[in-house]
Structures are given as C-alpha cells and as structure tokens.
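Friendly challenge for the regulars: who can give me the structure tokens for this chain first? No prize, just bragging rights.
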Amino acid sequence: MKRGALNSLAASLCDYLHSRNNDIAGYWGIGMLCATAAREKSNEYAFQIFPGRPIVIHGCEISDSLRVTEKLVKLNIDLIEGRLSFIANGRFSDGADKYISCVSVAVKQGSRVGMSMSHVECWPHEPTRERRRHLDGVMQATMLGWFKRLLG
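First reply, four minutes later:
Bragging rights claimed.
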C-alpha cells in the first residue's frame, strides 16, 4: 500500500473508534473509557490493533470490532498502534464533565507508515444518568398508555 492509503486507513480507524456505533458493555465506548480514565486518574491509553482479532483498549473489548479487523487481514499490515487520551475541558450545560478525546493511530506496512489523529468532545459514562434517561422513557410510555386507556 502507498503512504496515502495507509493514512486513509489510519483515519478510518480513528473515526471508527470515535463512532457511536461501537460500544463497550452496551454503552458508547469512548464514554466508558473516559469514565475509567477519570476514575483511575490516568489520561492516556496505548493500544495495538491486530488484524483478525477484536480491538481491546485497557482491558475493554470494543463490540463488533472483529468485523472491522477481519478486513485488515488481507491488507498484510505489519503493525497498528494507537494512543487514546482524554483532556478535561470544563462542563456541559447539564452539569456533566466535558472532556476532549484524542485518538491517534499509526499503521505500518514494510517501511511505510501512515498516521492520523482525531478529536471529539465526550463525557464519562455515568450509570445514574443512563438510568434516569431510561426511567424517563418508561414514565412517558406508561403515561401515554394511561391516557390512551382513559380516552379510548
């Protein structure tokens, strides 16, 4: 592969890691790792991506990542390394802590190296906020059903 293609692959992997389509234990992967980083007072994780194996960052497996890494097997990549860091950046309007998540990925094939970096605003996963959101939805559905039975 040429260096431009390696850069493109690295950018795609960065975008995949920041995507809301991947998760850890059913929650946004970056939010879960951000919560772990805040709890452990560490702000950087190093990781490697192995073609044909699930992506694991700090002991957390990204769900469905095997589907992505299986496509890397045929590309004959030597090494994929990355860093994930979190920088505190104030608070959101609802009071949640705000962080900037930075993912950098380097892809090596032979003597060529492709690199990319991306940033996204994120917040640490808080189970209490998730429960509240879930209960709000349940309450709305229950009240809607009650009104339908009342009118119908």
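The chain has one domain: 3-125. Strands lie at 23-24, 27-28, 44-48, 56-57, 60-61, 79-91, 97-109, 112-122. Your move, everyone else.
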